[in-house]
TrEMBL record:
It catalyses: [phosphate](n) + H2O = [phosphate](n-1) + phosphate + H(+). Its EC number is 3.6.1.11. Residues 19-300 form the Ppx/GppA phosphatase N-terminal domain. It is found in: Cell membrane. This is Exopolyphosphatase. Gene3D superfamilies: 3.30.420.40, Exopolyphosphatase. Domain 2, Hypothetical protein af1432. It is a peripheral membrane protein. It comes from Cobetia amphilecti. One of its GO terms (molecular function) is exopolyphosphatase activity. It is an enzyme of class 3 (hydrolase). Residues 308-479 form the Ppx/GppA phosphatase C-terminal domain. Its main location: membrane. Homodimer. NCBIfam families: exo_poly_only.
Amino acid sequence: MLKLAAIDLGSNSFHLLLANHQAGQLQVVAKQGEKVQLAAGLDEDGMLSEEAMERALNCLAQFAPFIDGIEADHLRVVGTNALRAAHNSEELIERAEALLGHPIEIIAGREEARLIYLGAAHALADVHGKRLIVDIGGGSTEFIIGEQFEPQLLESLHMGCVAYTKAFFQDGEISEKRMRRAELAARSELASIQRTYREMGWDDPVGSSGTIKAAANVLEAHGWAPHGVVTREGLHKLRAALLEFKRLDKVSLPGLKSDRATVFPAGIAILCGVFEALGLEQMRYSDGALREGVLFDLIGRNTPEDSRLSAIESLQRRYGIDTRHASNVRDTALQLFDQVAGDWALGATSRQLLSWAADLHEVGQAISHSQFHRHGAYLLEHSDLLGFSRPEQRALAFLVRAHRRKFPKNELAALPEPQQPRLARLARLLRMAVMLNHSRSEAPVLGMHLSAEGDDLTLNLTEEYRDHSLINDDLSQESELQKAAGMTLTLADS
């Protein structure tokens, strides 16, 4: 039995979910949630206020005892739109990581959409046909079309109940004009995906998240819709009821929790825009969402079902990477890794990262051979790589950037300080593997021996390669490049 945990640092709410995984099933052990409204703490310059950070840290202090003792590989803490948008998110992340004793991963919008779909799909009955999943968050809204557990279209749009409350109801007034402006803003955001989504179509429209759950509860409480369903007619009645309150602080409806009341009108405006843009008549609610998706994704990690493997293979196909050569570089790099992993305290996560970097080290050649290591780093840092968090992508991009030419000390210094020693060591291993396979032979170069004493490396080639002039010349140059970066690589004579 595995004990798993997910923490979702949303723009409106933070959620903790603990579950046991046994015999292919998740058994929920504990759930915690709190309205932190992190997005409300973003100022016009995109900076999180100290008050918002304190709300976040106070919430995480309540979560911390629940995750005590859970293995690192069985726990993920993910941040969404507000942390993506905040220019000073690193400050909050550092403080939160110190409190939790675990890294926090900011995930891209489409990765958030993928995880939401995974959580919702597992919570729903196995309906044949396509599903549309809509998740209205505090800072973004995700749209996914998929079938069974496979998403086919993924999008994350910049509209959410907290962000729209700030934009359209900031002084607390609710009016027809303000509601309509918010709805039109949502329609405008949806214009970029409306045609593509409607052309693909769906059989089963489903909503997840607090806004849609609250809407379904209120409609049921008034007898305006069946249990767990939002209808177009019921939504129009709910919209009219909200306008009667005139102010956010007066909103009070059966089925609506008081801590959601002030952001509820903005959420309903977005939902009305979604119904209009996508031509919906009704939508049922699903309990599964991001945090459930994180747990199901954890179960599949480091298995053949790991979504990151599909992302790597997709990039190799899209950019025409020479997979035979990449495989040779990978085999050499992993042999070097295994010889120094103990001395350098490098674990399985580092080995996997090095493997992926070898697979993708030539991705930038699709743009230009000149400076292709720089092009490759840009592609990897800024692409939507499903399954990867932003810190993972940034680390992967650095390794590809560092695999040739002058060692990029400035780029290394720009990474989070705790990661720098590990990534510098992985970059050195990748560089040597690339050098050893420079001739692009049919088989990987294997059989050498690498030893580490601190950060000083000594490489001893087998007799087969000891007199290979190209390899020796390349390694001599690499030794000089590492020396210029303050590192030692010694080539043994025998």
